[in-house]
# Entry
Amino acid sequence: MGQETCEEVEEKMEDDSGDEDALRSKMKQKALKQCDRYTTKYAECASGRTISVVWQCRKQAKELNECLHQYTNDSVLEEMKKAYMLQQNEQGSVRV
# Structure
């Protein structure tokens, strides 16, 4: 049994787009957890500000976005899809 390509994984997941949505949600939740200190720093900077948050908190926003991007990019999602499909194969519940 060979290694599945990203395209094959995507095709199988297209059968149930709810699974991909769930994986994206899980990916975002993990990113927020991993980047909690940056989220807190940005929230503290933004507190009590309105329009000035754009320039006053630019550094904190950049740090937060850089952190989040480490955990929410296409390669992370592809790895999560592969792990999901492996898990489904092991459980014998993959639809053909």
About this structure: The two ends are 15 Å apart (CA to CA). The chain has a mean pLDDT of 85. DSSP finds six helices and no strands in the chain.
